[in-house]
Design brief:
Bound molecules: acetyl coenzyme *A
Distance between the termini: 19 Å
Structural class: alpha/beta
Strand order of the largest sheet: 1-7-6-4-5
Length: about 325
């Protein structure tokens, strides 16, 4: 249990300029704008510029979050970056971000991989570390350059993903009962091969043949993932509400992982909470994995959809399979 309230002091997000529309994708693979929109709710996604790296995008989002919090890089003593697409396999993207952002060398920096649930896992970790009193002000970044790990010939995945970054600054407040009230995180490791990158890891290093076959790219059994995602998100949402003796209608806004509009609609139905209480931007960004929730959180705040005293529920799932929920009082 936290010894003090851990709160979000500021948020920021960044999306690369380049917009890739469904119509453009339909010229490259056997798909259509209509299929993509009706099956996923996605109209377009952003793609990083040539030479624009994961750390570059993370820095942009972090700078905006710091400005929003009224802080400078010198105030930060902890940085956790949630990503499955670091600039290099080694070292961590957080090391590059530490340098580019000008964080103190005494800042504790590390990456965390929980795929699309990454921001929730990182938020929970950071809030525990700040709540303990060992750290004062932290940055959590969710950032992905998924365009670099997509097989652009595979229509079952290439239409789904996009690039971007979101960030939050975490600090403390003497006011009890606000900030991160709790999380409910989970993992179902038996489902690894439903959504993974088959080659390029230590169990199956890349070969010339595996690279030619694009096996260093995301492979997914979409239908199975869809069903498990709905079940896991519903369970994570129900559990956290029950733990805090709340009903779904106590939640002002749900910020779900933006993977597929139909998944969000299914959660809305299962929780018996109207879609107006769900923040949706999957139409503009597609699935940006660990960046999805912090981008949505930042956009929701800037759109005035979160007010002081409101209860927000974050809920996610991703490769692993990982899943979870988080409850925030503003
Ligand atoms: N365009 C046209 N047709 C397509 C496309 C496409 N882009 N992709 C697949 N199809 C075809 C299939 O080949 C199939 O054809 P068939 O019936 O002749 O075999 C048909 O469309 C139906 O395919 P399904 O896979 O059954 O389609 P479904 O309605 O399940 O939608 C989708 C597919 C969108 C992938 C869905 O299953 C989904 O969203 N799953 C969840 C994915 C997800 O959210 N992953 C998130 C985690 S990501 C992370 O952690 C990094």
């Amino acid at each position: 249990m936290s010894t003090r309230s851990t709160v979000i002091l500021g948020t920021g997000s960044y999306a690369p300029e380049r917009v890739l529309t469904n119509a453009e994708l339909a010229k490259a693979v056997d798909t259509s704008d209509e299929w993509i929109r009706t099956r996923t709710g996605i109209s377009e996604r952003r793609i990083a510029a040539p030479g624009e790296s994961t750390s570059d995008m993370g820095v942009q989002a972090a700078r905006r979050a710091l400005v929003n919090a009224g802080l400078t890089p010198a105030d930060i003593d902890l940085l956790v970056v949630a990503t499955i697409t670091p600039d290099y396999v080694m070292p961590a993207a957080s090391c590059l971000i530490q340098h580019k952002l000008g964080l103190r060398t005494s800042t504790t920096c590390f990456d965390l991989n929980a795929a699309c649930s990454g921001f929730l896992f990182a938020l929970d970790t950071v809030c525990a570390m700040v709540g303990s009193g060992r750290y004062q002000k932290a940055l959590v970044i969710g950032v992905e350059k998924l365009s670099a790990i997509i097989d652009w010939q595979d229509r079952t995945t290439c239409v789904l993903f996009g690039d971007g970054a979101g960030a939050a600054v975490i600090g403390t407040s003497p006011e009890p009962g606000i900030g991160l009230l709790g999380t409910r995180l989970g993992t179902s490791g038996e489902h690894v091969e439903l959504l993974y990158i088959p080659r390029g890891g230590t169990s199956a290093p890349a070969t010339a043949e595996s690279i030619a076959a694009q096996d260093h790219c995301i492979r997914m059994k979409g239908k199975e993932v869809f069903k498990l995602a709905v079940r896991a998100m519903d369970e994570a949402a129900r559990d956290i509400l029950e733990q805090h003796q709340l009903r779904a209608d106590h939640i002002s806004l749900v910020i779900p992982h933006q993977a597929n509009l139909r998944i969000i609609e299914a959660i809305s139905e299962y929780l018996d909470l109207p879609m107006e209480r769900f923040f949706v931007n999957v139409d503009r960004y597609g699935n940006t994995s660990a960046a999805s929730i912090p981008i949505a959180l930042d956009e929701a705040r800037r759109a005035g959809r979160i007010k002081s005293g409101d209860l927000t529920l974050l809920v996610a799932f991703g490769a692993g399979l990982t899943y979870g929920s988080a409850l925030i009082r503003w």
